[in-house]
Every structure is written in structure tokens, then in C-alpha cells.
Amino acid sequence: MTRFAVGIDLGTTHTTLAVAPFDGDTPRPQVLSIPQRVSQGQIEAQPLLPSFLYFAHASEGPQALPWDAERTFVVGEYARARGVDAPARVISSAKSWLSHPTVDRRAGILPLGAPEDVEKISPVETSWRYLEHLVEAFDARFGGGDASLAQQDVILTVPASFDASARELTVEAALAAGIEKITLLEEPQAALYAWTLGMGDAWRGQISPGDVVLVVDVGGGTTDFSVIAAVDKDGALDLVRVAVGDHILLGGDNMDLALAHLARQKLEVEGKVVDRWQQVSLVHACRVAKERLLSDVSLPSAPIAIASRGSALLGATLRTELTREEVTRNIVDGFFPSVSADARPTTRARAGLTQLGLPYASDPAVTRHLAAFLARQSGALSRLEGFVGRSTEERAPRLLAPTAVLFNGGVMKADPLRQRLVETLDAWLAGDGAPPVRVLEGADLDLAVARGACAYALVRRGKGLRIRGGTARAYYVGIEGAVPAVPGLEPPITALCVAPFGMEEGTEAALPPHELGVIVGEPVRFRFFGSSVRRDDKAGDALEEWQADELDEQPPIEVTLPAVGRREGDVVPVRLRSRVTEVGTLLIEAEPLRPLHADERWRVELSVRAT
């Protein structure tokens, strides 16, 4: 039995934690203030824990916390501040590295360019240390035993576009931190849960059947788009997530880089030279200036100061400033330009050699990425049972037309950015004769995801309306026939339905027994198929023949299933189980009929996002 519902937003820029007791009729999630070092000699409890890690030099002494007097590293506000003066000792954007598909995310690669006395760590370990700080702060506040965080029902949020490996690595980091009861939740869904929670029963007056809510989540490292539709289900309002965008590495980090480039140009005009490591400091300094200017409309400018190379500790500094007009021009017009509905992200040819770094989106325009997403999802609502909106008309729309927009992420706190995006959306929708979008107000964009995750933990206990997802297609795994080799003829493939149309997240399909075998110890390829038209197939149905337009083959998954205790190439008789996880992956589990040990089984995951 757990005492608390806990929601954690492990963000690129900030990490937050919300908690609510399970007892009581109307528990309300509260954001927990996290003790952290804010300067070399000061500890304060703040609601935002900046997602920065600083490795202190030995000369600085222990970086003590109330629960650890000998700590040598810092997580939080002081770590972020040290990014200006000692950028090579600071890790930032670990969440973006966690989703980097072409690096070993368990290898010690951070911080980039670290000095010799700093032992590099992996993106997974960095995330673990952020979560460990939360665990220690929570336990210091509530005590151990059944009140410890390890014993609570924890909802940990991830970007809707995280792939299966990034989600699994996130869980790995949480387990290493001692968080054992974990459920993952998409951040845009958490934002909507937080909004409904903040509105109370009044939210039902703003959303009705036929509404389409576009969640625009622009955080420190990623941009996420999700669409949630309101449908009529047996006379009651139901919320269904119908579309999720691609993983776009575009956010506040990109904006900081753009402003740092501007500041560098201003310094060089004055004859001052900025080297590679000063440039890193400049990025951190510009992030601070950007946040000040976008949060305080009375400030005309914000100063920028970084240390000169080779100067004494209190020596000369390089100084410039960013004005409000410069920030507005570079961020609003550069990242949120007014574009037409048929605009699409541009791509460029990449160099054969590149420095190790994050794979940022090649096009910085959030509005172009949004136009591409809405065009790609233009037919998503026509398949939704119980939906009565205008997109179900016979005339195919150019874009999926939202009726309301909910903003999330620290970047979207800036009023000029929200205003530009709404103006652009309205211009697109007017071309299809749709009314302007409504903005769902009232959410705290820094704290909404943690509160929403906590609210979801309560919903799982029956306290509130759950957002349904369900697969937008039926999914099948290819079974190769056992036939003699014939020149020029491939073995026949049977498509076994493992997830029927509309299968809900968190549910398991009962597959009837089949005489199947998996090959272990050598590379194999799993073939998957999807269908948006075969809505009557049930889990376990086997299709030996189908029309060309009925099934679409998905990208194959190539793996080597471990052969511990068996010979390479063995064919092991198995029974299959399938499950759609809470964050939208299809989990296929092969359980041997005669296992060598109790835990022997093999798993393969496939993303089942609507595309």
C-alpha cells in the first residue's frame, strides 16, 4: 500500500516533483520544494530543480547537503550558475543526450571537454543523479519506511515522441535512483491533466464533444505536438489522444545558441576574440539573459559577462548585452516565423565529419514543423469512433484542424511566442473555413507536467477522467512458413494479429496458442505490419492472404536474442504475449514452453504511434 501519489517531470531544463496523499476525498497535488545549493555557501528549497550537474574542483571542498556532508558534485541552481564560469565541469541537456540514437547512452561521454580531474559519466547516470537528488529530498521531508519515495506510486513523464530505447533508459535511471514503482506518462497528456485539475469541474464548459485540443510543448530541449479529441461515448464526454508528433530536438537550447551567436558577433565587432570554451560560457550567460527578458517586460536589456581566457580569478571579463528587441527578433521571427500552411521543414546536406554533439533539428522554425505535423495527421479524426467534428466531412481537409490549443514548456511562457503561434494557426485554419482556435488558459507552464503526472496517479485510482489513447491501427507480426528452399521464391509470411485496432495503453491481448519458435543466438529480423482498415481482426487472428492496400509493412527490428544456456541458432518453442504499454509501444514477449529458468523470456518493442 502506497501513501502518496507522486509525479516527476524530468525536464531538459528543470526537474520538478508533485505529491498528493491517496487518503481523503479530494487530494490536490502540491509541488514539493527541493533543497539545493544556490551558491557556494547557501542551501535553499525551491520548486524548480535545474537539470544541471556540476563537478566541483577539489579546491572548492565538499558540496554538502543536509543528507550528505561529503558530496563532491552539485545538482540544481548552483550547478546551472557555474555553467558561465566553468562550462567544462557542467552537464546540461542530459535528457536530449538520453534520446540521442547514435551514441552509447550508457557510456561516459559527459561533460564534453571535461578536464582531467573530472571522470565523465553517461546520460543515464546523469539522469539518475537528478532523480537521486529528488529521492533524497523526498525521504528527508517525509521520512523512510512506507513514506519513502521507493514505496510510492510514481508517475515519471517523458516526451510523447521518445522512442522505446529512450523510455527504457529513463526507467533504468529511475531504478538506479531507487524508484521502484514506476509508470511512464507522455508530457502533453500530463499537461492536459494538470489543466483539467486546475480548472476543476469548469473545464467541461470549455471542452465538449467535437473539440480537438492541440498541445504545443516547447521545452528546453525538445518540441512535442500531440492532439487530444473530445468524443461522445454513450452520452458522456471522453478524451482520446489521437496523434503524436515526431521527436524534434528543438527548444530553448537552440534559442540560447542563437543568442550566443549574436552576442559573439557584438563582442567581435569590438575587437574581442571568443574561443570555443568561452562560447560555451556565452551560451549559459545568454540563457540567463533570455529568461530575464522574457519573464520581465519592464527590462529593456540584460547584461552578458564571461571570463577572459588566462585572466586571474577576479580579472577582466568580456561584457556586452542583449536588448529586448534583439531577443524578440531572433526568437520570435527566427523560431516562430509566420509561414503558410503548406510550409515544410527544410533539410540540408550534412558534412561527412562533425563534432560530437546533439542532433538538433536542421530547421529551427517551430511553425514549419507544426504545419507538417497537422498536414500529416489530416485524416486522423475520420477514424475516431464517436467523433462528430467537421474533419469527418467528405471533403478531406488540408490540415488536422484544432479547435483549442494548450501550451506547455518553459519556452511558451513568453507571451510574444504564444501570440505568434496562435496568429499563425488562425491564418491556416481560415483557409479551410474553420473558426479561430481558443487558448486554454490557466496552466503553470513550469509546474504543469509534474502536477499532471501526480493527477494521473490519482486517476489510476479512480479519481478523475482518464485520457484514452488506443492504437490508431491494428498491428501484426510476420511468421515465416517452414517450407523447403526454392530458387527465386521467398518463404510465405503469415500476419499474426498481436494488437487489434483501438487496443488501449496498459492492456494485454490474449493470444491463443500457436506452434511458434524463436531463433536465439544469431541476428534475426522481426517483420511488423499495420492496418488502419482491418478493424474487425482480433488478437491471435492469422492472415495468410491480404490485399496490397490492407497492410503496410513497418520498419523491421533486427536483434540477436540472447542464447544463455542454449546453442546459437536454436529454435525455441514459445508462446506469445502482447501488450500496449502506457506510453505507446507494442511489447511482444516470447515465453519458452520449456524454460531453462523461471525468468527466461525474450522481448521486442515496436512504437505504435499514429503517423
Quick take:
The protein has 611 residues and is of the alpha+beta class.
Could you explain the architecture of this structure?
The protein is built from eleven helices and 31 strands. Strands 1, 2, 3, 6, 10 and 11 form a six-stranded mixed beta sheet that branches. A six-stranded mixed beta sheet has the order 18-17-12-13-14-19, sandwiched between helices. A hairpin with a 4-residue loop joins β12 and β13. 24% of the residues lie in helices and 26% in strands. By secondary structure, it is α+β, with helices and mostly antiparallel strands. It has four domains: 4-185, ATPase, nucleotide binding domain (Nucleotidyltransferase, domain 5), CATH 3.30.420; 203-249 and 362-452, 2-Layer Sandwich (Nucleotidyltransferase, domain 5), CATH 3.30.420.40; 252-335, ATPase, substrate binding domain, subdomain 4 (Actin, Chain A, domain 4, Alpha-Beta Complex), CATH 3.90.640; 474-607, no CATH class. The longest helix has 20 residues, at 123-142. The two termini are 39 Å apart.
